[in-house]
């Protein structure tokens, strides 16, 4: 396998792993969101027990917080759907790449054998078998001027097969890229809600600090709310980073094939 | 990968492919066969996905791939069938034959390609190859080892492709043909004792093959039998008691212990 093909395969494997990570990440957001809702509801109950003005403001803040997961639920659902399509797309792409690797190795072996037979100055590595343009003109390359008609036919047939698979991979990568951009936009909108949750959490923390010492049991709950908001932030950041990495790798992969 | 013509007459040829030095160590060595008749080719057990590039490239030494009209899978194992999608992709009009019981299973090797397999009935089938009278026959070999298994007989070449029957796990520098049958037995014995589940099925297969009376028996692993080694192989198989699983009693008892330990955890 040539170095360029090997690195291509490695990059596809990386982006495939990223796709799975993004899918897992978006699924975990649902659980985090549910935890946040439960804590906020608990906050309402605890605040109701306080019974003072401070209790009332905590009820209001926790109420806002408990509404957030409900508001972002459809967006999380959509993000999961996009991530799942995207992971599926990359799985199909990964299978197509494995197919390409086999056809590419066959073509490369054939080229090497034919060039050796004709004692050509060219070697198999002189041909970028990832480039559809190279593949479509391969049969007319001067390196194969003196090969038998039969060998030429096989080279053209293999090259066409490689070209078809590489074009399929290219289309799959374009589709995956579009889905990644969609996921990225969806994530931005979820992030805004993450900021709001964080803000609410801080307000609850500030408000609860005025409670008298016998009402301090509320502080444990606030701590949990802060932690869960932090986890939500971290998860959103991790998904976002994965998407950026995926986008960048896919863009490079598409470039490799079209240059 | 090496290839060698093992039979040649006017417009009719058998080629063996195997002893692949590029093969990964963990992949079992396999023999692939091509029958070329009147410019058309049929592949017998085309090999697994791991060796597809080597097999394909080696085949192009002998025939253009658009001349491959048929592929026969003796049974469903991955070292035989996992490359089928690649072949169907490359030769879209190729007909792929296998036991009817395995069509739905082998289709799982599709990798996005629709694998429309021709399910061969238990009694076998006649397959046309070339333009002259060069038909080949799928001979029943069920339970030798797979429950849906075929050998392939070519009357023109008088060669029988036997799949895993007569298979041997041999070193890579072993000759293509069996030279000393008695010495060869040690490479076959363990394989047959473990892989062949039924002495009755094996004896019946031997009976059928004696009626066919081939000059050569070509297994999917190991070396080819010809001349005096053909009757010797049939005698050896006829008297081989397989499917007894004597040592299994002890081993499965041990696994019971493992199971009990696991349950206690």
Report on the architecture of this protein:
The complex is a heterodimer of chains A (259) and B (265). Chain A has five helices and no strands. Chain A has one domain (3-100, 160-258). Chain A is 86% helix and 0% strand. In chain A, helix 1 runs antiparallel to helix 2 (53-117), helix 1 (3-50) packs antiparallel against helix 5 and helix 2 packs antiparallel against helix 4 (149-209). The longest helix of chain B has 19 residues, at 246-264. Chain B has a seven-stranded mixed β-sheet, with helices on one face. Chain B is built from eight helices and 13 strands. Chain B is α/β, with parallel strands linked by helices and 265 residues long. In chain B, strand 1 (2-9) and strand 2 (12-18) form a beta hairpin. Chain B is 31% helix and 24% strand.
Strand percentage of chain B, roughly?
15-25%
- Strand residue content of chain A: under 5%
The number of domains of chain A: 1
Count of beta strands of chain A: 0
What's the story with the biggest beta sheet of chain A? Answer: none
Count every helix of chain A, treating DSSP H or I runs of 4 or more residues as helices: 5
Low-confidence parts of chain A? none
Average residue pLDDT of chain B: 93
The rounded distance between the terminal residues' Cα atoms of chain A is 20 Å
Structural class of the helix and strand makeup of chain B? alpha/beta
According to CATH, the fold-level topology of chain B is Metallo-beta-lactamase, Chain A
Distance between the termini of chain B: 50 Å
Topology readout:
The complex is a heterodimer of chains A (259) and B (265).
Chain A: H1 3-50, H2 53-117, H3 132-137, H4 149-209, H5 217-258
Helix pairs in contact in A: 1-2, 1-5, 2-4, 4-5
Chain B: E1 2-9, E2 12-18, E3 32-37, E4 40-44, H1 52-59, E5 68-72, H2 78-81, H3 84-90, E6 95-99, H4 103-106, E7 117-120, E8 125-127, E9 136-140, E10 150-154, E11 159-163, H5 181-195, H6 199-212, E12 216-219, E13 225-226, H7 229-239, H8 246-264
């Amino acid at each position: 396998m040539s170095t360029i093909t090997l690195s291509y395969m490695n990059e596809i494997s990386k982006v495939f792993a990223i796709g799975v990570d993004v899918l897992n990440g978006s699924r975990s957001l649902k659980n985090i969101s549910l935890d946040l809702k439960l804590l906020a509801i608990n906050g309402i109950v605890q605040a109701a027990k306080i019974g003072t003005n401070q209790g009332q403001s905590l009820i209001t803040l926790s109420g806002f917080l408990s509404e957030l997961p409900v508001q972002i639920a459809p967006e999380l659902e959509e993000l999961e759907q996009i991530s799942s399509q995207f992971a599926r797309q990359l799985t199909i792409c990964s299978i197509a790449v494995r197919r390409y690797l086999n056809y590419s190795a066959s073509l490369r072996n054939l080229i090497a054998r034919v060039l050796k037979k004709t004692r050509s100055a060219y070697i198999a590595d002189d041909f970028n078998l990832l480039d559809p343009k190279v593949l479509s003109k391969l049969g007319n390359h001067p390196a194969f001027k003196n090969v038998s008609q039969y060998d030429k036919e096989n080279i053209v047939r293999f090259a066409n097969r490689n070209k078809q698979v590489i074009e399929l991979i290219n289309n799959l990568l374009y589709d995956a890229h579009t889905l990644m951009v969609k996921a990225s936009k969806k994530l931005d909108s979820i992030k805004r809600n993450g900021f709001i949750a964080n803000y609410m959490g801080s307000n609850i923390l500030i408000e609860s600090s005025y409670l008298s010492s016998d009402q301090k049991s509320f502080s444990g709950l606030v701590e949990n709310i802060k932690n869960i908001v932090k986890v939500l932030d971290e998860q959103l950041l991790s998904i976002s980073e994965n998407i950026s990495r995926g986008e960048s790798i896919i863009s490079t992969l598409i470039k490799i094939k079209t240059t | 990968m090496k290839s060698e013509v093992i039979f040649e007459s006017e417009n009719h040829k058998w080629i063996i492919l195997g002893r692949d030095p590029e093969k990964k160590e963990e992949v079992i060595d396999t023999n692939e066969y091509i029958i070329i008749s009147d410019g058309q080719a049929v592949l017998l057990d085309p090999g697994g996905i791991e060796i597809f590039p080597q097999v394909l490239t080696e085949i192009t030494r002998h025939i253009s791939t658009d001349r491959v009209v048929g592929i026969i899978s003796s049974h469903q194992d991955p070292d035989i069938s996992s490359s089928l999608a690649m072949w169907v992709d490359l030769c879209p009009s190729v007909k792929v034959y296998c036991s009817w019981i395995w069509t739905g299973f082998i289709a799982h090797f599709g990798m996005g390609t629709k694998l429309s397999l021709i399910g061969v009935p238990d009694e076998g089938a006649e397959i046309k190859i070339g333009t002259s009278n060069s038909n080949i026959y799928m001979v029943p070999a069920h339970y030798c080892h797979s429950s849906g298994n075929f050998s392939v007989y070519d009357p023109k070449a008088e060669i029988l492709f036997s799949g895993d029957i007569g298979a041997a796990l041999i070193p890579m520098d072993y000759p293509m043909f069996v030279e000393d049958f008695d010495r060869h037995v040690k490479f076959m014995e363990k394989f047959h004792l473990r892989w062949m589940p039924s002495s009755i099925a094996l004896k019946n297969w031997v009976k059928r093959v004696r009626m066919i009376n081939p000059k050569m028996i070509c297994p999917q692993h190991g070396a080819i039998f010809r001349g005096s080694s053909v009757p010797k192989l049939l005698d050896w198989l006829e008297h081989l008691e397989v499917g007894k699983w004597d040592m299994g009693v002890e081993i499965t008892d041990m696994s019971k212990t493992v199971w009990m330990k696991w349950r206690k955890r």
